[in-house]
Amino acid sequence: MITLGKTERRARMLRTKPWTPYLYLAPVSLLMLFVFGYPLIAIFDFSTRRIRGASGPFIGLENYRQIFKDEVFQQAILHNAQLLLAVPILVIVGIVLAVLLYERVAGWRIYRTILFAPFIIAIPVIGIVFSNMLSLNGAVNELLRAVGLDFLALDWLGSAQMALWSVMAIIIWHEMGFGVVLFLARLLSLNEEIQEAARIDGAGWWQRLWYVTIPQLKDVTEFYAVVSVITMLAWVFPFVYVMTRGGPGNATQVMELYIFNFAFRNSLPGIASAVAVILFLITLALMIPLFQLRARTEMEGIE
Amino acid sequence: MSGEVLRISRRDFIKLAASSAIAAGIYPFMRGAPNTAWAAGENLRMWWWGEQEAPGLEKWVKDSVAMFEKETGVTIEVTLQDTTTVISEFQTASAAGNAPDIQFLWNGIYHMESVWLGYLEPLNGLISDELLKEADATVLSIYQGKQYRLGWYAASPMWLYNKEMFDKAGLNADEPPTTWEGLLDACDKLKSKGFTPIVGGLKDGPWGEWYMGHALGPNLDTPAEALQLFIGELDWREPKYHEHWTKLEQLWKAGYMNEDMNSIDLYPGMDYFGAGKGAMTAIVIPTLGKQASMLGAEKVGLMVFPAGGKGKMNNKPIRDLQGLGISSQSQYKEIAAKFLEFLHTPERVQAIWTDSKALPTDASWDGTAIEDPLFREAWKTWVVNPDAVPYISNLMPVMFWTDAMFVNSQKIIAGEYNGEQAGENAQAVATKWREQNPDLLEHYQIWAEDLKL
User: Fold this and answer.
1) Computed from CA positions of residues B116, B121, B125, B129, in that sequence, does the dihedral angle turn out positive or negative?
2) Of the candidates A159, A249, A264, which has its C-beta nearest B88's C-beta?
3) Who has the most CB within 10 Å: A259, A283, B27, B33?
4) B449 Cβ partners below 8 Å, 6+ apart?
5) The whole model's pTM is what?
6) Side-chain half-sphere CA neighbours of A9 within 13 A
7) What is the pLDDT of residue B11?
8) How far is B146 from chain A (nearest CA, A)?
9) Are strands B321-326 and B150-154 parallel, antiparallel or unpaired?
10) In the CATH scheme, what is the code of domain A67-302?
């Protein structure tokens, strides 16, 4: 008769039980639940209360009712939606620039650095510099006037018609570098034989780009598009705050700034939380189809 | 002694214990440094703001704390706050039961909300009535007969004009305009000489708040009227209450303001004046020194904005000041009060002026240290003048600043609003605030009654 030692018995018992892996995962799962789950639950809870300081009475959906009838909030949502127009620009221009660098044009390493540099500059610095450059009498307009293009010397950040598009242009300038480096890294990892085969088969530059290169960038493109959508919805606050504070009027008001104003200026964290919930749900609603699309693509690839 | 057993009789032990107790009791007084039994070893926290507008105050605060610590043995941990979060940080900390003992407080609603939420302690009883009156924090710091703030230094809003430009434009450089027609006439003459009559920056917003504070007040009889507008007893859509925005539109459309008004922030806009690029601008007293040193003090004239109002507050200088208060959660309210009293000792009050050129608000400070005639005039007219009126923008909560005062001015300059539309927006914002803050509205109504008295 074989007798097992205490340690060995315990080890065998753990190996054989179906819940053993979950036991190992439990500590980190609980930690994750606390770190991510608790704030999310707290925000949902806050959004149904009139918070004064740390708590407040339950008021149901009143905060949501207040938000939806607020014109400023409607403008904020519209502006976030308008900023989404930057996503296709980021993707298309990012791919084109990455392909040009991949073609190893003369000095491509320097161009790569120049393109990536804006991404690593702190946003407040960018905001301050561009605020000065784009003011009515700033460097950009001075340059335009100097070359006789006075009609183009506009009030880039001070005009309600121009401000949002100016902010969007600066966001694109800042974010583009990340996309280019991402696409370039993927291109450099591709099998060059496929490109070579296409070239031997007589495919031109555009044909190779369209039929060979871009299809191979699909996964990176999807990832970058998702990141860019999130950026435009939930990561534009520092640009707006430093450059325009949401103005002139509410011309550059966005949801994050709206949340900030209610949380820190108007001392109404309940309303800020309700907007945060809405922002979370909108982002989720946009992300789920994108992830489903990706999953379907992966399945098709396997089949 | 080695090897000997220390023998102490019961009587000796009692004597020794009694001596130790007496020694322990009188030790703090024998040390000389801590002269208050309650003080030694206590640790207070003070959150403050002010270096941003009056450079030099940080030195003053640090010196004051060091002196108080040396004198009492109390330690005070000071934190300079960011402009954006002065109010929210205090309210959040209070809600979490972790408020600082001493808190910087802006005037009016910017600390009154904290009063209503129970986060601030009335100073009556903690600080002598004499000092409460002497370091008066204006009527906007009083709620239901209790004072919640002690005055610190002046932050009165005022206007400057360039005497040299006035002179060149054929205007009397010693008598700035006092009526709306006079202002328009001056602007016209200045413009015809190639000067920009009024300069400022609106991109970040606060110029809009300053403008309303200067231009709406003159149409009102009392500060309570501004509160009545806000709580819905009066209507912003009445021409009297949005006329100031119509006048802003008039100034803008006539080309009397810098064309990049919406394109630059408050301080760069103000600095146009110091740089000699504009004839008139709005400032607050702590920034007077900078503008005077930029332009040359001899060229700077002080004026009340000639809004041409029809109320009792017309043509009155505005008096506003920064202050400090004590948290209702402080475990050391008496010590905090002693520290505030220490800040108002004659030597410390004088040092405010010496260290930062901010003007102390204590009535006991006679201002003899002010040698510069410009500062002397500012102090006489905007700090100790009994005819000065409260700053009515301080009666409106932040939402009204951002969504009405800032937005209205920016939209008027951008050509999107006229005065009437600005009034409609103000009415809508005030209504929105009331709907979102029903729990504070009742306090507002009580406050309005207080201010009518």
Assistant:
1) negative
2) A264
3) A259
4) B224
5) 0.86
6) 5
7) 53
8) 23
9) antiparallel
10) 1.10.3720.10
How many whole angstroms separate alpha carbon B395 and alpha carbon B301? 28
Three-class SS of residue A33? Answer: helix
- pLDDT, tens digit (0-9, with 9 covering 90-100), for A73-87: 999 999 999 999 999
pLDDT of residue B133: 92
Contacts of B333 (CB under 8 A, 6+ apart): B101, B121, B126, B326
Closest CA to A155 of B259, B268, B208: B259
**Nearest-CB residue to A158 (from B91, B263, B428):** B263
Distance, CA of B110 to CA of B141 (rounded, Å): 10
Element (H, E) at B409: helix B407-413
Cβ contact A137–B411 (<8 Å):
no
pLDDT at B312 over 90: yes
CB contact under 8 A, A54 and B202: no
In the block, tokens 């700077």 appear at: B300
Residues on chain B bordering chain A, Cβ-to-Cβ distance under 8 angstroms: 84-85, 87-88, 91-92, 94-96, 113, 117, 202-205, 259-265, 397-399, 402-403, 406-407, 410-411, 413-414, 416-417, 428, 432, 435-437, 439
pLDDT tens per residue across span B208-260: 999 999 999 999 999 889 989 999 999 999 999 999 999 999 999 999 999 99
Contact A267 B398 (CB under 8 A): yes
Distance, CA of B181 to CA of A202 (rounded, Å): 81
Number of residues assigned to chain A: 303
Instruction: Tell if the CB–CB gap between B410 and A247 is shorter than 8 Å.
Output: yes
Nearest residue of A to residue B95 by CA position? A53
Residues 6+ apart with CB under 8 A from A302: none
Domains of chain B (ranges; CATH) run 43-154+320-382 (3.40.190.10), 157-318+390-452 (3.40.190.10)
Using CB atoms and an 8 Å cut-off, which of residues 124-143 of chain A contact chain B? 131, 135-138
What element of type H or E holds A294? helix A269-302
CA dist B428 → A69, A258, B418 (Å)? 11, 17, 15
pLDDT for A17 equals 77
Best CA proximity match to B307, nearest among B252, B371, B244: B244
Whether residue B262 and residue A250 make contact (CB cut-off 8 A), yes or no, is no
SS3 B159: strand
Distance CA A64, CA B436 (A): 11
- CB atoms under 10 Å from CB of A279, counted, come to 20
CA-CA distance, B356 to B132, in Å (whole number)? Answer: 23
The backbone torsions φ and ψ at residue B438, rounded to the nearest 5 degrees and listed phi first, read: -60, -25
Tell me the C-alpha distance between A130 and A171, whole Å. 11
User: Residues B224, B284: contact at Cβ < 8 Å?
Assistant: no
Q: How far from each other are the two terminal CA atoms of chain A, in whole angstroms? A: 52
Q: What ipTM was estimated for this complex?
A: 0.84
pLDDT in tens, A206-251: 898 899 999 999 889 989 999 999 999 999 999 999 999 999 999 9
**Cα A136 to Cα A132: distance, rounded to the nearest angstrom:** 9
> Is B117:A50 a contact under the CB 8 Å cutoff?
no
Q: Which residue has the higher pLDDT, B376 or B25?
A: B376
Please choose, from the candidates B128, B123, B130, the residue with its C-alpha nearest in 3D space to the C-alpha of residue B330: B123
Nearest to B123 by CA among B323, B321, B352: B323
Does residue A68 sit at the B interface (CB-CB below 8 Å)?
A: no
Q: Are B375 and B286 in contact (CB under 8 A)?
A: no
The CA distance from B22 to A121, in Å, is 65
**B251 CA to chain A: closest CA distance, Å?**
18
CB contact under 8 A, B260 and A249: no
Check: CB of residue B350 under 8 Å from CB of residue B369. Answer: yes
Nearest C-alpha of chain A: how many angstroms from B402? 9
**Contact assessment for residue B113 and residue B88, using Cβ atoms and an 8 Å cutoff:** no
